[in-house]
Amino acid sequence: MAIKIGDSAPDFTLLNVDMAPVSLHEFSGNKVVLAFFVGAFTLTCTKEACTFRDSMARYTNLEAQVIGVRVDDPIANRDFAKKNRLPYPILSDPDRETSKRYGLEPPRHAIFILDKEGIVRYIWVAPNPAMEPDYGEIQDILTKIS
Hints:
Elements: E1 13-15, E2 21-23, E3 31-37, H1 43-54, H2 56-61, E4 64-70, H3 74-83, E5 90-92, H4 97-101, E6 110-114, E7 120-125, H5 135-144
Parallel strand pairs: 3-4, 4-5
Antiparallel strand pairs: 1-2, 3-6, 6-7
């Protein structure tokens, strides 16, 4: 069953690049940009990850936490995060269970924006793997939600 705008975001616990468990509910009280990336070191995912990195001050000002979810294992994610100097959590979903819970089967490139209560306020799923999201639209949505 696909997630819809207005639904509560499914909680999850995934390993970060240091092999430590991180749960979505730990970010309660913050707006969250949940970015699902597909594949290690692909051009589009790398560009997107770095665009979020380069805009972190804006996301911080909007009281938003960016969280990346990748289907790769924590070691590949650590290499990806280190190479690209990513200042936000990159979580590992190698069994794709979290991706499936968000309706991304097969795993797809997607953005979910959650408000401070964990309600889904925006969904973007790439129609093709080479597309990046509209970053201006993401920031506009974050400005409008509480």
